[in-house]
Amino acid sequence: NATAIGLTGSARAVNRAQPITPRTKEQVAKVYTGAGKDWPDLGTPAGAIKPFPREAASSTRTSVETYVFGSSLPKYPAEVVEIFESVDTIKAIGAFKGGIGTVTLSGKNLKDPTIKFIALDGVQPTLANLNTGAWKIAKPSYMTIAADPAKVKPAIKALVEFVKSPEGQKIISGE
Fold it and tell me: Exposure winner among 24, 54, 105, 126, fewest CB in 10 A?
């Protein structure tokens, strides 16, 4: 039995030192397909772009790709370096002024001093926008329990009820 408990969001982030960022999903698509290799290709100050997509199996990557590219999968150029963990993506973005990558939209990541999240199509990637549905790069999160209620231990039932409560939802939403 799957119980929806909230949303998980993904967003693009750039090195905090980068003064201007891509503003549309079309610009982000150019960055990741190699059509935009330097920030001036996107109308921003000089400097090479260093894209860091997550690994192909990452739900963080697939949710952003679906939003940016629709049903067609992008072809990444050889110089694009896949990263396998959100923490490693943040380190990579922080190490390169031209770094851009996909990270989980979380309170912790939003506070990271080495990166900044980028708005897309006029919407800021914030927890409030994620929770209201304004930020579209999101997917539901679930808790899964046995389908037979008799097989669900009381402590598990209590946990599910707590997570669904206003207090639990406040924790889940990161507010």
Answer: 24
